[in-house]
Design a protein that fits this description.
Elements lengths: L2 H9 L7 H11 L2 H4 L4 H5 L6 H8 L2 H15 L3 E4 L7 H4 L7 E6 L8 E5 L6 H14 L5 E4 L5 H11 L4 E4 L13 H9 L1 E5 L11 H12 L2 E4 L7 H11 L3 E4 L10 H8 L4 E2 L3 H8 L6 H12 L3 H13 L3 E2 H8 L3 H13 L3 E4 L3 E4 L1
Parallel strand pairs: 3-4, 3-7, 4-5, 5-6, 7-8, 8-9
Antiparallel strand pairs: 1-2, 2-6, 10-12, 11-12
């Protein structure tokens, strides 16, 4: 672990600081290492920094905890990704409340072409499970990554179906990676490691406390191109995830259910209030998302092209995919902080690579 990464990790153990302030400190100081080289007075000049934060930064405790955490991660084969890393999910980079760091255990690309979040009630009915089974089976030609929260009911059923059909699946946890919750799903979690990844922003030893799950839900929503709510009661985590997904301008879908079923109330209400698109078959998703069914070879070729992008190209693609619409070159200049001449050259190169599509009026979108 080099000094910059050690300091980056240590910031996550500073008292009174969160994701937004970590990003703000690094932006203000130029690097994580420089944060720890600042005087107390210089740190207090950063908006939002209080005395307790400066005292914690100036102490040895954050660095000591970071060293211990890094050793644990290495011993368990866990990768620690910072938001500045190329492998960090591009879909999360542009979110104001995106995690500044992720723990990842598995072997998969977190910047794949297509991602679908699948969430629902913990008390899944046979109807809900059948809907999940049909949805996952129909998503196989699109080779979408399936994202969920490893919870009882719809979540774990989505993971299991993805595993059964050979699709990559990502489980987002509300605890440390050393605490699989619920414990009944440890075997499924172990399988996910080999066919996807377990992901959390929480350090080792973090218990699955209730307040961690809305934070977990924002990662599910943020990493998904589209979120599908299969079954949901009048209140619950699935509806919270749908609200977050809407706030991120993600496409939300809900499967309708029997009006007498309490676990269909949430889905029916999402559709009725125009907070979710009606989903009856995968063709509904294909139409709204402007997907076309592709062979595994075509998807693999596109993924290989994405994997071989230069950092500047990857940043442009991540922005276009996060926006999920055509974006004007002026807006792209602002978002990438690149001069228009350089950006135009990058976009042209990406067009030649068949990754970006040019539209009239100097508008661009990702494939």
């Amino acid at each position: 672990m080099d000094q910059e990464r050690a300091c980056f990790l240590a910031l996550h153990f500073v008292d009174g600081i969160g994701n937004a302030l970590i990003k703000q400190l690094i932006l203000h100081c130029g690097s994580a290492k420089e944060v720890f080289n600042q005087s107390g007075r210089e740190l207090l000049s950063v908006p939002g920094i209080r005395e307790i934060v400066t005292q914690s930064i100036r102490s040895q405790s954050p660095m000591q905890r970071a060293e211990e955490e890094w050793r644990k991660a290495e011993s368990h084969g866990v990768q620690i990704l910072f938001f500045t890393d190329a492998g960090y999910p591009g879909r999360l980079k542009l979110l104001d409340d995106g995690p500044s760091m992720l723990y990842v255990k598995g072997n998969t690309n977190l910047n794949t072409v297509r991602t679908i979040g699948v969430v629902g009630t913990r008390r899944a009915t046979s109807y809900g499970k059948e809907c999940v089974e049909q949805l996952i089976a129909d998503l196989v030609p699109y080779q979408a990554h399936i994202i969920s929260g490893l919870a009882y009911g719809i979540d774990v059923h989505a993971h299991k179906e993805a595993l059964r059909h050979g699709l990559t699946t990502l489980a987002i946890l509300g605890s440390g990676l050393d605490i699989i919750y619920p414990s009944d799903h440890r075997d499924t979690a172990a399988r996910i490691e080999s066919q996807g990844a377990l992901i959390t922003e929480k350090p080792y030893g973090t218990m699955p406390d209730a307040h961690n799950f809305p934070q977990r839900n924002r990662i599910i929503a943020g990493m998904s191109d589209a979120l599908v709510v299969v079954e949901a009661s009048e209140k619950g985590g699935a509806l919270i995830t749908a609200e977050i997904a809407n706030s991120y301008n993600r496409d939300v879908f809900a499967i309708p259910g029997n009006i007498d079923n309490p676990y269909s109330i949430g889905c029916n209400r999402l559709i009725k209030s125009h907070k979710a698109n009606l989903l009856t078959t995968v063709k509904d998703l294909e139409y709204i998302m402007n997907w076309t069914e592709q062979s595994g070879q075509t998807i693999t070729q596109l993924q290989l092209a994405l994997d071989n992008l230069e950092p500047e190209e990857q940043r442009v693609v991540n922005i276009l995919r996060q926006k999920n619409r055509a974006v004007a070159i002026d807006e792209l200049c602002f978002l990438t902080q690149q001069p228009q001449g350089i950006l135009a050259s990058l976009l042209l190169t990406l067009e030649f690579k068949n990754i970006v599509v040019a539209h009239p009026g100097k508008m661009f979108s990702s494939r």
